[in-house]
Design goal:
Radius of gyration: 18 Å
Strand content: 5-15%
Shape: globular
Largest sheet: 3 strands, antiparallel
Number of strands: 5
Number of helices: 11
Length: 312
Amino acid sequence: MCRAPAALAMFVLVLGACNGDDNAERSEPTATPAPTIATTTNAPTTTRPPPATTTTTVVAGPADVAVPISAAAAAEVLTRVETELRSDTRDESQLAHTAWEQDLAYAALRAHPEWLPDIFAQVPESVRPVVAANADARAQISELNQPQPNLPAWNIRPPLPRDELLGYYGEAEAASGVPWPYLAGIHLIETRLGRIVGTSTAGAQGPMQFMPPSWEAFGEGGDVSNDRDAILAAGRYLEAAGAPDDMPGALFSYNHSDRYVAAVTAYAQTIMADPRAYDGYYNWQVHYATTDGTYLLPQGYTNGSGAVPLAL
């Protein structure tokens, strides 16, 4: 296994969580406890509630959404969006816009970690565990990476439909026993649910970022660039590494980093506490940190062209 290469550093993503690298810093997975999300309710089963009826409404693109400029502004946004995402009466036509606001609020919080105490003091108690989990996951992944001098040679594409991906996660869970929120967490961290098309400097490929030897062992003849094939292969890999009985150890085998384990687990536990959290993550965008600042890489970004600076 190998840790994500610094040459692919992102603000919130790790492209290239390598599978099966013999040059790992540690040869044995460690079951490091990952952050636990405090909640007053039991985590539901992994069966996601059916989506509400969707209406068609034109919303602004992610580049048009304002970044919070203070702890108070971030607290207001996080209180509103985390509540809206979990509402039984939420407006499905505004879901993407709500998630873009959520995404940028956590990006701003990562850029200003000193805001966190004030944000905790201002958001409702019911929202604090979610804010803590998402903020910690973003911090863990950010610590794995350093800003790079140049924008990446990637293509950014739209993800597959939300419920199609959910079907693949469920298929992989049924085959491997790995709870689907963990597969979604890996997919989110590795390539923003398949938005990023690019090979890591270490050679990891596809939406779940497999190294060639690991794909040969677990791909079962599938296409490493195909989301369904890659998600099913990730389930097989994690099962062989000890999942679901030892999820921390299996995740550490997938990427030899305790920070990575903590981040995936935080996202997975957030989804398990309320599967509607996935609908926010589904709409999160690709952010990339350079020495000149952090950029949004929107759909259609190609090999350095089309990046939008973020005012973080």
